[in-house]
């Protein structure tokens, strides 16, 4: 009788522990969130206040209204904007950094500000002119 009680207790313990592990696997990784579907870009913004940046960002945002823009990040390390304006390679570094075109003259490091299954916000340096580089925040949704 003692052995049956011990075996039942052990079986219940193993069952509870294995259930907890199953619940943790439902949390997708950052890479899984990024690559699970195309992202619709909804807004470009910057803390910069110079006229060149403000004008370019206004044009970009106005264009998003007339021509929706999507970006797809593939698990093989490539990305593509739907208007084909930008495409290339990307690599996740940790959970908060994406390196575009790693190892090339065009390498760009962006910071993931926030990512969920429905929202993706990244910030990256963007050369607005030969003498002006600003941090641009790109917001996207599913």
Would you give an account of this structure?
It is a single chain. The chain has 142 residues and is an alpha+beta fold. It has a single domain, classed as Lipocalin (Beta Barrel). It contains 3 helices and 8 strands. It has helices spanning 2-24, 30-35, 51-66, and strands at residues 39-45, 69-73, 78-81, 87-93, 97-100, 108-115, 119-129, 132-141. The chain has an 8-stranded antiparallel beta barrel. It is globular and about 60 Å long. The relative contact order is 0.17.
Unreliable stretches (pLDDT < 50, length at least 5) are none
Q: Which architecture per CATH?
A: Beta Barrel
Mind telling me the CATH superfamily name? Answer: Domain of unknown function DUF4822
Radius of gyration: 22 Å
By CATH, the topology is: Lipocalin
How much of the sequence lies in strands comes to: 35-45%
* Biggest sheet features: 8 strands, antiparallel, barrel
Q: Based on DSSP secondary structure assignment, what is the total number of beta strands?
A: 8
Rough outline:
globular
- What is the C-level CATH assignment? Mainly Beta
Domain count: 1
Strand order of the largest sheet: 1-2-3-4-5-6-7-8
Can you give me a brief rundown of this structure?
This protein is of the alpha+beta class. The chain contains three helices and eight strands, in the order ααβαβββββββ. It is globular, with a radius of gyration of 22 Å.
């Amino acid at each position: 009788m003692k052995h049956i009680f011990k075996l039942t207790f052990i079986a219940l313990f193993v069952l509870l522990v294995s259930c907890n592990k199953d619940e943790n696997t439902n949390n997708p990784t950052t890479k899984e969130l990024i690559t699970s579907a195309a992202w619709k870009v909804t807004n470009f913004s910057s803390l910069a206040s110079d006229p060149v940046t403000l004008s370019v960002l206004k044009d970009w945002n106005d264009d998003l209204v007339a021509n929706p823009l999507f970006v797809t990040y593939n698990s093989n390390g490539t990305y593509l904007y739907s208007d084909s304006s930008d495409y290339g390679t990307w690599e996740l570094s940790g959970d908060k950094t994406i390196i575009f075109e790693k190892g090339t003259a065009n390498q760009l490091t962006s910071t993931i500000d926030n990512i969920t299954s429905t929202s993706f916000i990244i910030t990256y340096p963007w050369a607005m002119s030969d003498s002006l580089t600003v941090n641009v925040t790109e917001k996207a949704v599913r």
